[in-house]
Task: structure prediction
Amino acid sequence: MTPSDRRARERTETQHAILDAARELFAREGYEAVTMRRVAEAIDYAPGALYNHFPDKESLIRTLCRQDFLALAERFGKQAAIPDPLDRLVAIGLEYIRFAVEHPNHYRLMFLQPPPVTRKATDYEEHGDPHRDGYAFLRHVCAAAIAAGQVRAELHDAELLAQTMWAGVHGAAALQLTMHGDDWVQWRALEARARAITEVLVRGIAAPGARP
Result:
């Protein structure tokens, strides 16, 4: 490995450490409450040196959000090979909930807090691309189910269908992250709850005779 390669690797590793620390702090304390100095302190890094990687807090959160939303879209993309759209919807719903549980800080920052900054034109580069935009992929699958006649006739709006599916699995994911430790409820296994909500949702939208 050349000195240049080593420096590039160290820079990448440092940026990953910065992003991981920032994600945890933003998810726990909120975007406004966290300073660049706090992020630097979390990884024992010189505050001034942090600006060599990210010029300000806004650029840090933009990089973080883009990275995390792309990660979710990539996981959705792995379900693209499933031939039946309704089966694909079940798989997407399960993957969404698993992503939330496996990456709780990612999920809290992405979906349980208001957007911390106003979007810029550059933030829309992935918008509408099913390969890089998780919502676009979900809407694309819903449109495929509608076109195949697998969905109840009155549910002909792919946007409405996608948002309904999203709302259902989001509820299951959010409930797990916020309430799973509460002993007031005799919680059933997460995988059982995740599969139940996704299958109930898909069976509810399916046309007669079309079942996942």
